[in-house]
Amino acid sequence: xxxRQIAAQAQNHAPSYYAASTNRALAFAPLQGEQEADVCIVxxxxxGLNTAIELAERGLSVVLLxxxxxxxxxxxxxxxxxxxGVGHDVEQFLPVLGEAGVDALKHMGFEAVDIVRQRIExxxxxxDLSWGYCDLATxxxxxxxxxxxxxxxxxxxxxxxxxxxxxxxxxxxIGSDRYLGGLVDMGSGHLHPxxxxxxxxxxxxxxxxxxxxxSIVERIDHGQQVRVHTAQGxxxxxxxxxxxxxxxxxxxxxxxxxxxxxxxxxxATEPLPEALGHELLPQNMAVCDQRVALDYFRLxxxxxxxxxxxxxxxxxxxxxxxxxxxxxxxxxxxQLQGIGIDYQWGGMIGIGANRLPQIGRLAGQPNVYxxxxxxxxxxxxxxxxxxLLAEAICGQLQGRFDLFARVPHPTFPGGQRLRSPLLALxxxxxxxxxxx
Length: 436
Known about the structure:
Keywords: Oxidoreductase. This is FAD-dependent oxidoreductase. GO terms for molecular function: oxidoreductase activity. By secondary structure, the chain is an alpha/beta fold. It contains eleven helices and 17 strands. It has helices at 17-20, 46-57, 94-122, 140-155, 193-206, 253-256, 274-280, 321-332, 378-393, 398-405, 415-433, and strands spanning 33-42, 62-65, 81-82, 130-137, 162-166, 181-190, 210-212, 217-221, 226-230, 233-242, 260-269, 286-289, 295-299, 305-312, 341-351, 358-361, 368-372. Strands 3, 4, 5, 6, 11, 12, 13, 14 and 15 form a nine-stranded mixed sheet that branches. Strands 1, 2, 7, 8, 9, 10, 16 and 17 form an eight-stranded mixed sheet that branches. Helix 2 (46-57) runs parallel beside helix 9 (378-393). The model is unreliable at 1-11 and 428-435 (pLDDT under 50).
């Protein structure tokens, strides 16, 4: 099983199908010397890029520092699934936020997808956006959950077509007998995430944002004016945004303790015959099941199946991602036996203990903001985070930002060495529950 060589323009990006199929070449110099700005942003993924765009659109000067390449982390490697919502089980926050607050979170989960839609349209970003998504049931309790979700979306006035699909009609959605039913949402969909990130970087640059790659932040001096140091330069700014998510490292130990980097993995087949691709996903929807160790998959614009999942909390990647993931794919689609795997890759996503994005301001540092821990909803929730951070920094609609900031986020136990093994052990319990 051969993995294709990555195109020359993708050098320094993590090897993936996305890196090999970028539609624009962007490169930014490392930071050298001193820069001054209203806001410095650390992190060149979706959170940082969209915060930069939102701030620049409001007239602020922005410097963005990325340790590797724009979109190098989860933003450029994820499943490309653009799904409504900002968290898992937001009803758990009723005691903290009340019914009105929880409903506001749900509406912002709709807005998050709209921000992506509008950004793509406004800046003419070519990223293979396609609409249509289906949640897949493997247990009868999942079907009960879909019924409740459908009723709640109707109550909230969700603007896009929804459909509960019974088991005997599932072949209209997916060419597999594995699923008992589904919930179709035509307001969610899928896209090429790295091309979106690169398009947003170009948009930010056009607005005057100064972007620097290969600029690892080594030290932050806090104060009324923040000083952010790299090996060869320094940024002086009135406000700072930390948007490193699973790759934040030790820039802030308190934030790092509230997000667990978890490995997620994807394989991409060779281009499929058109008839076979249509058999697998007749309506070209993105799909995802409801298990803890979930599968998610979709077709690429050039007719490959992109099959992902296998969230790992152990901190250890599989030695051979394709060999690990292909049997999972064949359980869903046995008709792909003998089809070649052209690409295999993985990366870290940020998981929070309560699965709600962590958007707030550092305690004791009123000019330092952060956004992280999207727990699998990063493609849309990052875009919402960028808007909320910009609103807070500019003193606009502060209540929306405060709604997220009010939610407490537990610190994962065990410190850096023990955190992942302890969480891996805990997740075994939830995977055991999936069996029933």
